């Protein structure tokens, strides 16, 4: 019986798939789900999703076990109820805070769109734009009991040589997802030197005052930062008495300023 090169190739791919490491995903970002489902490093085991609409969308596209969790408490219970111990979980775009109970049972890794030293918290890319940072980082780290701290496995530095809004910056950063997944694999192969981080600046959710334009005090750069940070949302704010104006571009700002 003659074995063709195609058959050899398929057999090798099947062998790789069977013998690759299992990984679970917590979140509902379809880009990373597709990468985890089609990569040379891990075998996607289960998906834990907290958004009903995304759950149905993912279910149509991905032939994997998908757990819909109606809230974060339900999500934690489902993970704790898994029979195996020491499973690998990667988190991206999910607000679950990993409890000590979870950490005692499994390993958790997070993808954070910012620096853990200067930009911890739930919306790092918004703060990157609002602060007018010239560089940002897409960080892969192993989670410990503190939010956005632990062991840094890899940081991808991203230079911001032009102005981005939040959606554009996310798209730019997500081009690095495959690289960060590969770095996680190298971490398990003990080919990555980790860096422990014990403290860093934490930025919380914005309040309206953070992106309200002060025409008397704000520099033009600060005004641009506020506009771009809110461009893909409702817009930066200018108040006149009890009236509010929402600005999404520099052109809108210049036109309004002439009227005021």
Describe the protein's topology.
Elements: H1 5-19, E1 21-26, H2 30-37, E2 42-49, H3 52-61, E3 65-68, H4 72-80, E4 88-91, H5 100-105, E5 107-112, H6 124-130, E6 135-143, E7 150-159, H7 166-174, H8 177-188, E8 195-197, H9 220-230, E9 236-240, E10 243-247, H10 250-259
Parallel strand pairs: 1-2, 1-4, 2-3, 4-5
Antiparallel strand pairs: 5-6, 6-7, 7-8, 9-10
Helix pairs in contact: 6-9
Q: How would you name the CATH homologous superfamily of the largest domain?
A: Formyl transferase, N-terminal domain
Q: How many H/I helices? A: 10
Q: Over the alpha carbons, how many angstroms does the gyration radius reach? A: 22 Å
**Strands, total number:** 10
How do the strands line up in the largest sheet?
A: 3-2-1-4-5-6-7-8
Question: How many angstroms does the end-to-end distance come to?
Answer: 85 Å
The CATH topology of the largest domain turns out to be: Rossmann fold
Number of domains: 2
Per DSSP, what share of the residues sits in E-state strands of 2 or more residues? 15-25%
Mean pLDDT, rounded to whole units? 90
Q: Major sheet: size, sense and barrel closure? A: 8 strands, mixed
């Amino acid at each position: 019986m003659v074995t063709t090169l195609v058959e050899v190739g398929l057999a090798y791919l099947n062998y790789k798939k069977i013998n690759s490491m299992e990984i679970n995903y917590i979140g509902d970002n379809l880009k990373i789900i597709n990468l985890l489902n089609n990569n040379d490093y891990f075998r996607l085991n289960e998906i834990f999703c907290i958004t009903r609409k995304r759950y149905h969308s993912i279910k149509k596209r991905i032939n994997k076990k998908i757990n819909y969790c109606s809230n974060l408490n339900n999500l934690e219970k489902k993970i704790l109820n898994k029979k195996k111990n020491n499973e690998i979980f990667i988190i991206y775009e999910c607000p679950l805070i990993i409890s000590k109970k979870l950490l005692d049972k499994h390993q958790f890794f997070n993808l954070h769109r910012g620096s853990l030293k200067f930009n911890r918290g739930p919306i790092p890319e918004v703060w990157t734009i609002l602060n007018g940072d010239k560089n940002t980082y897409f960080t892969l780290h192993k989670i410990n009991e503190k939010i956005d701290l632990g062991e840094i496995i890899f940081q991808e530095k991203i230079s911001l040589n032009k102005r981005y809004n939040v959606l554009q910056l996310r798209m730019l950063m997500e081009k690095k997802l495959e690289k960060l997944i590969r770095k996680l694999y190298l971490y398990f192969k003990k080919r990555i030197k980790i860096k422990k981080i014990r403290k860093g600046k934490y930025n919380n959710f914005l309040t309206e005052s953070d992106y309200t334009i002060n025409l008397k005090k704000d520099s033009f750069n600060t005004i641009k930062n506020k506009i771009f940070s809110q461009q893909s949302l409702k817009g930066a704010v200018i108040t006149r008495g009890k009236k509010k104006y929402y600005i999404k571009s520099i052109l809108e700002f210049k036109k309004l300023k002439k009227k005021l």
